[in-house]
């Protein structure tokens, strides 16, 4: 049964960072919990950054009405989804046209344009 992936349209505006998608894919591909230390080493960032990225992933999963990434003490992080939900999420992320992955330069430009032409004042 298809979950509420239509709620993800807002992710298309600012895009999801490549690293966030890579972490999500790594978690989806793994059958065992992945330690935060392993992920931080793999992606060459701090453990706090990994935890922040997992927070973003959890927001996305909540919008899809899916279970968030769980933290298993002394083992690591794990996505607890059925095989069907996993595959639907992977397919949606990889094929949905509104999912745009922006480079750093594109994100900076997007911020500048939002500030310059946005409806809300920035101060």
From TrEMBL:
InterPro entries cross-referenced by the UniProt entry: HTH_11 (IPR013196), WH-like_DNA-bd_sf (IPR036388)
Residue span(s) of domain Helix-turn-helix type: 19-77
Pfam families, alphabetized: HTH_11 (PF08279)
UniProt name for this protein: HTH domain protein
Species of origin: Streptococcus sobrinus W1703
Taxonomic placement: Bacteria, Bacillati, Bacillota, Bacilli, Lactobacillales
């Amino acid at each position: 049964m298809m979950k509420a992936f239509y709620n993800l349209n807002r992710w298309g505006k600012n895009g999801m960072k490549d690293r966030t998608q890579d972490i999500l894919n790594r978690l989806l591909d793994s059958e065992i919990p992945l330690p935060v230390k392993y992920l931080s080493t793999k992606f060459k960032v701090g453990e706090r950054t990994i935890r922040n990225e997992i927070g973003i992933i959890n927001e996305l999963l909540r919008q899809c009405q899916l279970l968030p990434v769980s933290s298993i003490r002394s083992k690591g992080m794990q996505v607890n989804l059925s095989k069907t939900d996993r595959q639907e999420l992977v397919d949606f992320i990889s094929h949905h046209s509104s999912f745009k992955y922006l480079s750093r330069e594109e994100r900076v430009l997007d911020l500048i344009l939002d500030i310059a032409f946005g409806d809300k004042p920035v101060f």
